[in-house]
Task: structure prediction
Amino acid sequence: MADNTISVDDLTPPEIAAKAVNVGIKKANLDFGSMFVLALFGGAFIGIGAILATTVGTNGADFPYGLNSLLKGLIFTVGLVLVIVAGAELFTGNALMILAVLSKKITLGKMLRNWGIVYIGNLIGALILALIMFMAKQYTFAGGAIGKTALTVANAKSGLTFTSALGLGIMCNILVDLAVWMTFSARTTAGKIAAIILPISSFVAAGFEHSIANMYFIPFGLFIKAFDPAFASQAGEFANLTWANFFVKNLLPVTLGNIIGGAIFIGAAYWFIYLRKQK
Result:
């Protein structure tokens, strides 16, 4: 008799690796229009997580740092939940496409094409969201405390040293890509959400650096500083907060770190374990 049972078991790590290759193939073969619009969504969805983290993270000076960080991390998970469940293209998650390249299912050029289009789309999506949020003046809520938090976060990120930003970027995408990797194992929406929560809340709570999130965090602070200078001057001194520092001292090293953490420490490592041809 035929076995008509339906498996509800989540995928095992070797099965996740095989699925990651297939996902990489599909991503590489997306047409430009679909890839770009999905990338706009990706930048905006992660930006929504950043908005919520800024709002929830606005607490009094006597609020415990660790608890504050944990709350920010938990709410920030909304961003990746939207990316995975609603559907979007995210540069940092697409570091796992390296498994398809190493398995010789797609070319390096196809992966780099995806990375380039998605990175630019994520940036534009995040910038559009930052402009909308500046127009909305939500940063003036709580007596301007939210805006002060946004400026403080953006200023701190813009003042990192290259090596610090690189290391924080590596650690961040190790956790982000572990979250994405584990969502491949889940067969249900609830399972995917559960796989996301702990790794993503951990990277935010620890203060690691995510290039796409920073495409919202820092420009939003820059918009406040440039277009509402009276508010910014009352909130404090934010000397590190410049466009040059955003691109050179944060986005460049954090992006490199994200690639190393995701593509090498997670993607290539799991390919070596589960997919390389062994004698």
